[in-house]
Amino acid sequence: RLTPVVVSSVMSSYAKATYTRDMGIFDHLVELMVQNIKEYSNRQVVGGLWACARMFSYEKALPDHSDTFPLYLLNIADLVAEIVERADYLTPKDTAQALYTLGLLEYKEQGIVSVLAQRAKELSSLFNGQELANVLWGMSKAESKSFDVVFVLIRRLEDDDSLNLSPQEASNVLYALGRLDLRHEAVFTKLCNLILDQIESASAQSVANVLWASRAVYFRPPQKLLDTWAIKKLGLVAIEPSEQREGM
C-alpha cells in the first residue's frame, strides 16, 4: 500500500511536470488520497487539490483538449470539503495555496470560498508577499464576495513595506483588484512603482496585467512604467515632446 508521502509526492511531480500521457495513474493516486484522506496532513491535502487544479488547467489549454470530464475531478469536492473542515488549522502557506487553487479551478461556491477567506483574514498579518498575492488572485478568480477580507489585505499592502513583492506578484494583485472592481489609488500607485523599481525582471504578462487592471478600474495607465519597460525590454527609444512637434 502506498503511503501518504508517496502518493502526495507523485501527484505533485505529475503536476509540476504537467505529465498527461498516462492520466490513469494520476486518477488512481487522487482516488487513493480521497479514500484515506484522514491519514493525510493538511499540507498533503492542499497540495493534492493544487495538483488536480494544475493538471486540469494544463489539459484545458491543450490544442487537442476534449470535453471529456477528467476522472480526477470527480474527487475535487471531497478534497475541498476536507480542507474546509480543517480550515481553523491551516497555516498561512496552506490557506494561500488553497485559495489560489480554488481560483485556478474557478470554484465559485461562496459557502466554501468564504470559509477559507475568513481564515485568510485571521492570518492576514502573517502572509508573506507571495502568499498575500496568491490569496487575492484566488479570491478574485473565485469571485469571492468576502470584501471585508479583501479590505484587510489591501490595508496590509498599503501599510507594510516589508512584503517585497516581485513584479509578477504585484501585477497579479493589480489584476485581482481589477477583477474585484476595487479602485484604490494608493495601492495601485505603490504596486506600479514596485514593478518600475524591478523593471528588468518584469515580464510582458506583468505589464499586460497592469494595463488591464488600470482600464478595469478607470485609472490612467502608468506611462513611466510602460515607457521604461518598452525601452529596457524592447529597445524602443522614447520620443521627446520637441521631436514630436518637429515631426508634425
From TrEMBL:
One of its GO terms (biological process) is mitochondrial RNA processing. InterPro entries: FAST_kinase (IPR050870). One of its GO terms (molecular function) is RNA binding. The lineage of its organism: Eukaryota, Sar, Stramenopiles, Ochrophyta, Bacillariophyta. It comes from the Eukaryota. GO terms for cellular component: mitochondrial matrix; ribonucleoprotein granule. PANTHER family: FAST LEU-RICH DOMAIN-CONTAINING, LD45607P. This is Uncharacterized protein. It comes from Amphora coffeiformis.
